[in-house]
């Protein structure tokens, strides 16, 4: 008998502080590395400027480590999108009301680490920052919207990168767990659902890990489209990344332990970027290549959900002459405090072709385009059936509750003469993906907690730093250089999602 869709399903939306919150230098907030990233475009990667040891100015693109001894800088007369973003900091009451009118059951958001601990290693937290999130959570709960809080979402304190060398330094475990304990304690009666780290398998370089090294530069690549790319990290770069990610996973397990001691009812999940990968053909090398590609992302889920490094990790580490450095107790903390649920992002699928290497071999999810699929204006394949495939793939492997915490499409929205925004392409994407999600739950038996559309309101693109690449059901009047009134306006898709939530998805399955 076909199962019914769960009545307590968490329909929602998702954002990140560095793309949405703004107020970067207000309320006692400190500087994060995301505040140093310029805007860009699909053909011009976002950059971080720095001064080298000789006083020369230069830049790196996202994913690269800062050269040894260099210091990142804010450049005069340069637009930094995170500084204002779309200004949730000053519009949170208005925005939450719009989310409530849409019917959201939950809202996935992130806390800005430097709003709580401005430097990351401060002795005491910033009370003004804590009060801001108190107000946000109170506003959400007023409308019966469940907060789903990501503790670390591409939000590295600059001080921790400059002074300690980022997550390559084990001392960051203590700073992070102190931050976790602070927010767990403060919001223990307001927040039930937590995510420790966003998309851990795609973190790398200076921006997200704070790495500072002397290794050679990575290939200058289009970080958004990711098609036909081969990135083989230099050994030194890869070793620093693997060790840093180990420290992050240890920190996550300690956070699980601390959180459950503070409130046994907490649900604390891990989160990965796991858009799908197919073999380009049935040639055995394509099939195994796609499988091996996928395991390089599974590695982090295996550790965080199963509690140990899988046997195949040794072969991956050997490619880079890497020996994992563990401290006493590391194996035990990973084993004893795994994640409660598995959150993941799904946007697209790509293909693995043996004749053109395209894998980011340390865990990323880039690959070749698929000739059978349409693409967004930013070159992302649209594959609703792939979502059902990935849901089954992950649930078969881990047998833990799943949570789709990012799914959506970036597109250019046009204002009609009557000021309406008829984004039928977004509605089509939304409905097709939810239909496949529905089948995964009701036919295949996948245990799925919820679905949060990426960017229920327009936010700055993380990959390109653009505003014209819009995801939202709610339009924000702002352009790529931060100009505009910031007025909020409902798009046609707003009402489509509202209807889906009101009917618990049944409107798509009559």
UniProtKB/TrEMBL annotation:
The keyword Hydrolase applies. GO terms for biological process: carbohydrate catabolic process. One of its GO terms (cellular component) is cytosol. GO terms for molecular function: beta-glucosidase activity. The active site is at 406 (nucleophile). Belongs to the glycosyl hydrolase 1 family. This is 6-phospho-beta-glucosidase BglA.
């Amino acid at each position: 008998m076909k199962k019914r869709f769960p009545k307590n399903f968490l329909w929602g939306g998702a954002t990140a502080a560095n793309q949405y919150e703004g107020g970067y230098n207000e309320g006692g907030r400190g500087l994060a590395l995301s505040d140093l990233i310029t805007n860009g475009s699909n053909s011009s990667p976002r950059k971080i400027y720095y001064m080298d040891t000789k006083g020369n100015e230069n830049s790196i693109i996202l994913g690269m480590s800062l050269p040894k001894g260099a210091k990142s800088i804010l450049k005069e007369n340069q637009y930094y999108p995170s500084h204002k973003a779309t200004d949730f900091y000053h519009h949170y009451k208005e925005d939450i009301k719009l989310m409530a009118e849409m019917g959201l059951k939950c809202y996935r958001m992130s806390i800005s680490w430097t709003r709580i601990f401005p430097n990351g290693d401060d002795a005491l937290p910033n009370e003004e920052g804590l009060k801001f999130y108190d107000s946000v959570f109170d506003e959400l709960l007023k409308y019966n919207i469940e907060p789903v809080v990501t503790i670390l979402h591409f939000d590295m304190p600059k001080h921790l990168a400059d002074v300690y060398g980022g997550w390559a330094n084990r001392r960051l475990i203590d700073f992070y767990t102190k931050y976790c304990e602070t927010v767990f304690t403060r919001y223990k009666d307001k927040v039930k659902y937590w995510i420790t780290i966003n998309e851990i398998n795609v973190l790398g370089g200076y921006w997200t890990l704070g790495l500072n090294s002397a290794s050679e530069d990575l290939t200058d690549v289009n970080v958004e489209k990711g098609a036909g790319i081969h990135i083989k990290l230099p050994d030194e770069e890869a070793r620093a990344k693997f060790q840093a990610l180990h420290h992050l996973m240890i920190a996550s397990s300690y956070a699980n332990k601390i959180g459950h001691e503070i409130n046994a009812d907490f649900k604390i999940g891990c989160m990965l970027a796991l858009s799908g990968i197919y073999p380009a053909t049935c040639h055995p090398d394509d099939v195994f290549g796609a499988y091996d590609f996928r395991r390089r992302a599974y590695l982090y889920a295996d550790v965080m959900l199963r509690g140990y490094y899988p046997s195949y990790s040794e072969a991956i580490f050997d490619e880079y002459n890497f020996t994992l450095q563990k401290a006493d107790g590391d194996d035990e903390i990973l084993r004893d405090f795994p994640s409660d649920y598995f959150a993941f992002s799904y946007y697209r699928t790509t293909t693995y072709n043996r004749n053109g290497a395209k894998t980011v071999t340390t865990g990323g999810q880039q690959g070749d385009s698929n000739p059978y699929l349409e693409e967004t204006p930013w070159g992302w394949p649209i594959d609703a059936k792939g979502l059902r495939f990935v849901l089954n793939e992950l649930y078969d492997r881990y047998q833990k509750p799943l949570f789709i915490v990012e799914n959506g499409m970036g597109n250019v929205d046009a204002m009609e003469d009557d000021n309406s925004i008829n984004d039928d392409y977004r509605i089509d994407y939304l409905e097709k993906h939810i239909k496949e999600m529905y089948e995964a739950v009701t036919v295949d038996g996948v245990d799925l907690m919820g679905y949060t559309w990426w960017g229920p309101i327009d936010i700055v693109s993380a990959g390109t730093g653009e505003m014209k690449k819009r995801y939202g059901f709610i339009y924000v009047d702002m352009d790529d250089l931060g100009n505009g009134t910031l007025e909020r306006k409902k798009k046609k898709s707003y009402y489509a999602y509202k209807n889906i939530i009101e009917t618990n998805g049944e409107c798509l399955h009559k």
